[in-house]
Amino acid sequence: MTIKDIAKECGCAIGTVSRVLNNHPDVSDNMRQKVLAIVEKHGFVLNTNARQLKAQDRKNIVIIVKGASSTLLNGLLEKIQKKIENLPYTASVVVLDENDNEGLVATRIYFEQKPLGFIFLGGSPKKLHGDFAKVHVPSVLISNQASSVGSDFLSSVSIDNMKASFTSAEFLVENGHRKIGVIGGALDSEISSTRYEGFLSALISAGVHFDFDKSYEIAKYSFEGGALAAKRLISKNPEITAVFAMSDAMAIGACRAFQDLGYKVPQDISVVGFDGLTISDYFCPRLTTIRQIEEELASEGLNVLLDSIENKAPCCHKIVPFEFIKGESVKKID
Amino acid sequence: MTIKDIAKECGCAIGTVSRVLNNHPDVSDNMRQKVLAIVEKHGFVLNTNARQLKAQDRKNIVIIVKGASSTLLNGLLEKIQKKIENLPYTASVVVLDENDNEGLVATRIYFEQKPLGFIFLGGSPKKLHGDFAKVHVPSVLISNQASSVGSDFLSSVSIDNMKASFTSAEFLVENGHRKIGVIGGALDSEISSTRYEGFLSALISAGVHFDFDKSYEIAKYSFEGGALAAKRLISKNPEITAVFAMSDAMAIGACRAFQDLGYKVPQDISVVGFDGLTISDYFCPRLTTIRQIEEELASEGLNVLLDSIENKAPCCHKIVPFEFIKGESVKKID
DNA sequence: TTGTAGGCGTTATCAC
DNA sequence: GTGATAACGCCTACAA
Q1: Does the pLDDT at position A71 exceed 70?
Q2: B321 close to B284: Cβ distance less than 8 angstroms
């Protein structure tokens, strides 16, 4: 069933049908009704491929979500999709797992679909090198800093990770903690190293020593990763009184592991997280954490992208505010 | 940049370029290399719209996810996308929030894109009536039963919710609980009413009375919903010794609320959940729950859909096994 | 082995 | 207001 069939059945030309279906004004009411009736009768709709082939301007924005398990990213995704709905664009979503390479995927999609732009929800600037340099459409990385990529097309919106981790670490120190363990990602990840830096400078400015080999455990950003790392950490360094975890998921995993080993949180050991996931407010104990404000991240991210797309604004790297959540997972010690 | 430009630059005809790009055998190696080199140099790829316009067979499957916040669904989504990648189909994803109408959205997409089929991750059979009846392509609802819809195109894959909730409730009863509260959805939702039915029949067969008005609290399937309902429940019926929550999220919310009110779980009150989310194994206490096996749900769901698409198999409603997780959130009482 | 040309379903620009 | 007709980018007989 094509526009042609409709035209034939209607006894008119295809142009007329097209005009009706595209709400062009220059069609007689009479004809319009007639066409509409037949269209309705067959439940006919225009072929999207043909339209887009013709109307050579795709208005699609591709959203690439890294790690389906992150509640933060899913909240963002929903918000952004909702916003785009009200704009003259469409959005398509690709969900990747931790091991996929978002840069490669984006590059493939770029050539296949020629979207207007990309939004990366999570994902690492590290993966946005190499092939991705060929992608010459505006993109924005949300929740991570991407200035290190040095691309003319890639913007980013994130919180000040350094300051945030500084704040958390400072809070631990202020509460009397001196022997602090860290559960974080490998330091070749920009985000992990930035958070580590912030943590470290808080300790340094408080005159607290930190022994990397003894007190830093590398883990995956997940419940399981946090739990495993917590066990390794406590066994090689049983004196620690607090743990700085680089994500809420890790923090929760760590809490679980500590409880399993007979330590109570925060009575026996304090834990701080990072992200401010919904669950962190329902977990027992409520997590002390850094909340990334979804609304802020989502709307700023989209704004930056649209500004690049519509006004050819140069790429930029925005910092949005975060919130320190006091929670209940840190105990004051002497 | 089109096939034509490549041909010109290459000094050959567009047919040759097309053949190279489609891996046709009848091209001289010489020519092939030459074309490939130029294609590579420009990073050129064929226009998807034009191909599909021509090859009139769209191979797209649309996945509609209801409620971005569910970890269960997101795990499923990732698995299904991965599976489809290895098949001669593409998949596109739409994420809806709790308030959207998945039936309406699917209907719109059906007419706009004419996909091969739909996969609903979560969502309610209730919403798949009405307009959705016009959607004449195979679809499958995953994690809920859809036989009640009575559509010839809509299959479903789910666990036996009745048996699962029976199992949970039975476990509570076996552990000495007689005064049990329920935190569930409104009973006009098929899933909630089925789970309630299973719960009830376990109580009945154990000779335990259940007073709906006094002991059933309607809540949203979320942490917050569970927490609010738990507070209402305990204030109107402080004698309960256990709570049957219809989702892990609700159960976690309830645990949080109980702790806030000074009740310890499971010492003072027992809680069972439903879903078997990853967090349920990390929460403190570990949740007693029903695990829906993602792998099973994902692969069965896709199989059912593909069987309908490829072999015109009639729609069917499959039951996949669940797992009862004992956890630590139920205490044996006398 | 390679080039040519018609057509996929639509839109838009012409005439009429 | 309406009807032809030429693109859009690609594939594929068919011809050379």
Answers
A1: no
A2: no
